[in-house]
Amino acid sequence: MYIFKLSFLQHDKLMSLVAKTITDKPTLKLIRRYLQAGIMENGLVKPNIEGTPQGGPLSPLLSNIMLNELDKELERRGLRFVRYADDCNIFVKSMKAGERVKTGISKFIEKKLKLKVNQEKSAVGKPSARIFLGVSFYRKQNEIRVFVPQQRKERFETKLKKLINRNWGVSMEERIQKTNQLVQGWGNYFKIADIKTYAIKTDSHIRRSLRACRWKEWKKVKTKYRNLLKLGISEEEAWKNANTRKGNWRISNNPIINLALNNRYWQEQGLKSLATVIS
């Protein structure tokens, strides 16, 4: 498999392709101004002389217009491929064929389309070793499956860690709201992958972290004791655990605290489950 990433899209080449379909001059002028809109860096506007604005609503469409000729060339050569904007995977049978295709297609892209191939992100390799739109692929019992690479999980976990950190001084309501937004968005995007076991493990970690946050919020022994009683814990166990010297993280895994602040409790607080989002 050959995967490549493009960069340095030339505005003049793109506009010439757009002009083949769009003849309205004000529209063409507006698109040109959109492409050349400045980039704010350290409080200063930097001119944009190439490429499309990152995250712009028109960027994927303009990339498709630019790369329509590439699609036709790949079809003409009888190659199997999948492309999304400027990310493209070309599937071949061997590493040798991949290297040959890489050389030929890179030459076509740079000479015919006047684009620059990002060599750092372009490579020949097995599908399981490459990332496309955040996921990778593997074979299981003659079936192609999707999995989330470790680096994508680590990126998600880094964001999650900030939200469920006990030292972040926000209310539980805001903490849960922000966590839900992250879990919902990440889960909806990666639900096509085999992440059920990972989701269950992540949900468990989130609930334990939130138990530690809640325990820290209660602070005083009397507050802990009173709240444990309200949550159905016996007087003896409530008093014993309210007076514990264990730290917040350690007590969050205590069976009694786990029983009081159980899954149903967090559901009532509005916490979303990653396992539920992907199901």
Describe the structure.
It is a single chain. It is built from 13 helices and 8 strands. It is of the alpha+beta class and 279 residues long. A hairpin with a 2-residue loop joins strand 4 (80-84) and strand 5 (87-91). The strands form 3 sheets. A 4-stranded antiparallel beta sheet has the order 4-5-1-6, with helices on one face. A two-stranded antiparallel sheet has the order 2-3. Strands 7-8 form a two-stranded antiparallel sheet. Helix 5 packs antiparallel against helix 6 and helix 8 runs antiparallel to helix 9. It is 54% helix and 15% strand. The longest helix has 23 residues, at 196-218. It is elongated, with a radius of gyration of 26 Å.
Characteristic terms for this protein:
4-stranded antiparallel beta sheet; two-stranded antiparallel ribbon; alpha+beta; 13 helices
